[in-house]
Write a structure and sequence with these properties.
This protein is an alpha+beta fold. It is 21% helix and 30% strand.
Length: 854
């Protein structure tokens, strides 16, 4: 029987509110038959209908969509055997560019001039006097800052940090809330607006007021009464504002201060006034993945120190906020909660690595029982200290906060340490997918570093459906590209620039995100539109890279050798101890980057029919590849200056001539063996080193590196008790102490930093063997690779067509493999004995004789 298992609009199965005039409709199919393919599908939206054989983001192309309107979507699919299935959903349009019947408002009397801190949160309110019974009420809101909405004291919606972090000068989101059941005749609508990223202190230099001198709020309440009358109540001078509310401080880094003892009847309110923004952003209905509370974390232990402070261990490092269930308290009683990732040897919190971030929640109680959890900040932590209350008077839990992304994949195997590594990758992803892809969730940073997500995107796409999440961020990447083609190293840039003296500079691997991230999305989900949207940015960026690499003579014209201080190079490579040494490898990393981005951009150009561009970028990549091998090697597969990343990149990208590829892999393997199978790569090389070895006859070396527990290695972190991925391989020594000294990074160490978790792709693509051949896995391979005593492994990932499963085990000398192939796809399976077979959709059981060679 054929079944439509999933139907989405703009990647959402329900609740879609969009301003896209051509929203994309996708669906997945299931069948109890094998070798099923889609013959045709009929998609109907209103009076528009189309027939298609595509299942991925089929665009609506009917009449112009009306604002504030619900549309029904129906899909009827037929397979190659004539079986049919149907499904329906709906979406709602937002404002569709309609002018707001509201004004931006603020408090003109609030003058905020202090540096490196965030403003006092503003509270706005509007007293409603509704004379009729409400049939429907929709609230549309956004803010310069971050906001929380309440009606009669009850929270509206479940999102944190609305309207979200974007490149505010270019685009901002607004949110849509159905508040029909929350209004009565004399309701009070309240909004709290904190500085957030737009006005509050941000980046490690603690710049504030980057986008505005103070917070501002914009909202429109659209009410339809039961008698059909409509009323619109927008923000204007009839609203009231105050800074005397219970939120006394809110800062992304420093935390939140809340005074529940404030007498709300004595708060002084004044009239709000229209506020003129510095710029006019494009306001669009939510198009990302909002931050929400997910897992509720319970502490695994609580210890009381001599000074009475309680130290709670949640057993897991994560990003989020505490939740205090206060059983009894006196009015004015002050509770202080501090956060940290690790403890000092004496059992106290190690807050040294937070740098200037205070990461503190301070709560002043009212009388009696109450609950408190911060709403306008978040922290990265495993441990907290609680002072000001006895253990028996409070129930302490915490909420994990991250963007509302669907878990798509998982990997498990017979090695518990590898399973913990996979969980560490998952938790570091969750902790750093907080509205944008950040670097770390705890210190005074939490910025959208482009290099981190550039190398991690393929792994992220195995584990999560991050289509909306990354599409939102890529829009900011596109918006913030410089006229010269270079890209900021953090997006949104929000006051940070590197290198400060040459802001037009293109930076390898970090800027590469504009190519690598959309390409990862395309291969994972089959969405060609992301390539169309990003192609102008890719093209401009790669040409900027070519410009900066073009100052040499002869083949050196294709060696990117601008001063190393203007690059990150082999960032945090553990085989050299200083930042200057990482940067000193930039000739190799930048030249390999130019080859890879020009090659991929040429492939994108070919897909999009830009044949002239495709030829230009193809020839450029060939010249760069030839230059790398000619300048940096002896021509026989040996680097003139040897380090792991110098071999890894040309091996993975196939820059070496075919007749020396294997020899280069042997030389890399010798380096790895000489380092006792320890990792020596920085950000650019780490995602690819195991592939570079395993795909070139060095499987044994790859597995020994993967399974190594010595420092530096992935499993050393696991052995040391890590529950997330570390920023630095040597984050802790064998005694649990941080050995990092003065290396030029200002004590840069995070214990929740996903970049080197890019090894996760190897677990899926080689150990489980799942690898896309065509975008979206329309065609894919399953070719499992066993080694180092593994006896089973199972991985699955949810694609645009359905779930792929590779589940193998070794039993009594036999290799047993169970696979699942989604409807509409084909899979080529290669067993360890070399047998190759092809399968259409369905579930299959395969086997062969197995003799370990690794």
């Amino acid at each position: 029987m054929l079944k439509i298992s999933s139907l989405t609009v703009e990647h959402l199965p329900e609740g879609c509110v969009t301003d896209n005039p051509n929203p994309g409709i996708s669906f997945r199919l299931e069948s109890d038959r094998q070798n099923v393919t889609l013959k045709r599908a009929r998609i109907t939206v209103g009076d528009w209908m189309t027939e298609t054989d595509s299942q991925i983001l089929v665009p609506y192309k009917g009449k112009k969509l009306k604002p504030f309107t619900k549309y029904k979507v129906e899909v009827r699919a037929e397979d190659d055997a004539g079986e049919t299935a149907g499904a329906e959903t709906e979406f709602e349009t937002g404002r569709m560019g309609m002018v707001w019947k509201a004004q931006w408002i603020s408090d003109p009397e609030y003058i905020f001039t202090e540096k490196k801190v965030s403003p006092v949160p503003m509270m706005f309110r509007k007293k409603l006097n509704l004379k009729k019974k409400v049939k429907q009420a929709k609230l549309y809101a956004t803010a310069m800052g971050i906001y929380e909405l309440m009606i009669d004291g009850a929270k509206v919606g479940d999102q944190y940090f609305a309207p979200g972090f974007t490149s505010y000068k270019h685009e901002m989101q607004y949110q849509t809330y159905d508040v029909s059941g929350m209004l009565n005749g004399e309701s009070v609508l309240t909004a709290v607006v904190a500085g957030g990223w737009a006005v509050g202190s941000f980046v490690f230099t603690r710049i504030n007021r980057f986008d505005a001198d103070r917070q501002a709020f914009l909202a429109e309440l659209r009410i339809t009464y039961e008698d059909g009358l409509e009323e619109i109540i927008g923000t204007d001078e009839t609203w009231e504002v105050t800074e005397d509310g219970p939120y006394r401080m809110a800062d992304i880094y420093d935390g939140e201060t809340y005074d529940a003892a404030i007498d709300k009847e004595k708060i002084f309110w004044r009239k709000a006034a229209p506020e003129q923004l510095r710029f006019t952003p494009n306001l669009m209905a939510d198009y990302g993945s909002p931050v929400k509370a997910h897992e509720e974390m319970k502490p695994v232990s609580c210890k009381k120190r001599q000074d009475g402070t309680l130290i709670y261990d949640f057993g897991q490092n994560f990003a989020g906020v505490v939740k205090l269930g206060i059983k009894r308290a006196k009015k004015g009683q002050a509770i202080t909660v501090k956060h940290a990732e690790i403890l000092n040897r004496d059992g106290s919190l190690n807050t040294r690595f937070l740098r200037t971030a205070k990461a503190t929640a301070m709560y002043t109680c009212r009388e009696g029982a109450q609950e408190y959890s911060p709403r306008l900040t978040y922290m990265g932590f495993r441990y907290i200290s609680v002072s000001g209350i006895d253990k028996e008077d409070v129930n302490v839990t915490a909420l994990a906060l991250y963007s509302d992304i669907e878990r798509a994949g998982d990997f498990t195997c017979s090695n518990d340490m590898l399973n913990r590594l996979q969980q560490n990758i998952i938790w570091s992803s969750k902790s750093n997918f907080v509205d944008i892809p950040t670097d770390c969730p705890q210190r005074d940073e939490r910025m959208g570093w482009t290099g981190d997500i550039a190398v991690f995107a393929p792994t992220a796409c195995f584990n999560f459906d991050i289509s909306r999440f990354l599409d939102k961020w890529l829009l900011d990447v596109k918006s913030e590209q410089l006229s010269t083609g270079g890209l900021p190293n953090t997006v949104p840039v929000q006051g940070y620039g590197f290198p400060a003296t040459m802001p037009s500079m293109a930076i390898d691997w970090w800027g590469d995100a504009c190519v690598l991230v959309p390409w990862a999305q395309y291969m994972a989900k089959g969405n060609e539109q992301v390539l169309r949207d990003m192609y102008p940015t890719m093209k401009k960026y790669v040409k900027a890279c070519r410009f900066w690499a073009g100052f040499g003579i002869g083949k050196h014209r294709y060696i990117w050798h601008t001063p190393s201080m203007l690059h990150f190079g082999d960032w945090v490579a553990p085989d050299v101890p200083k930042m200057s040494q990482w940067q000193g490898r930039s000739k190799w990393t930048a030249t390999a980057s130019l080859y890879n981005t020009s090659r991929l951009t040429g492939m994108v150009a070919d897909i999009l029919g830009e044949k002239k561009d495709a030829e230009y970028f193809r020839k450029l990549s060939e010249k760069v590849s030839d230059a790398y091998v000619s300048v940096f090697t002896d021509g026989k597969g040996k680097m003139k200056e040897e380090f792991q990343t110098a071999y890894v990149l040309p091996l993975w990208f196939h820059m070496f001539p075919e007749n020396v590829q294997a020899k280069a892999a042997e030389n890399l393997a010798k380096l790895v063996k000489a380092s006792d199978y320890c990792i020596g790569t920085g950000f650019p090389g780490t995602p690819y080193i195991l592939f570079a070895l395993a795909d070139n006859g060095q499987e044994d070396t790859a597995f020994k590196m993967l399974m190594n527990t010595k420092c530096p290695s992935w499993l050393y972190e696991v052995k040391s008790g890590a529950t997330t991925i570390w920023e630095r391989w040597d984050g802790l020594d064998e005694n649990g102490e941080c050995p990092i000294g003065d290396d030029g990074t200002d004590m840069m160490i995070s214990y929740n930093h996903y970049a080197s978790g890019a090894v996760g792709a190897f677990l899926y693509q080689r150990v489980a063997g799942i690898e896309a051949v065509e975008p979206g896995y329309r065609r894919f391979n399953i070719r499992p690779l066993a080694g180092c005593g593994l006896t089973y492994a199972k991985a699955s990932t949810l694609t645009s067509y359905g779930r792929i499963v590779s589940d193998w085990k070794i039993q009594d000398g036999t290799f047993l493999l169970d696979i699942e192939v989604p409807v509409g796809t084909r899979c080529t399976v290669t067993l360890p004995d070399g047998k190759v077979s092809e399968y259409g959709s369905g579930k299959y059981h395969l086997s062969c004789t197995y003799k370990s060679t690794i």
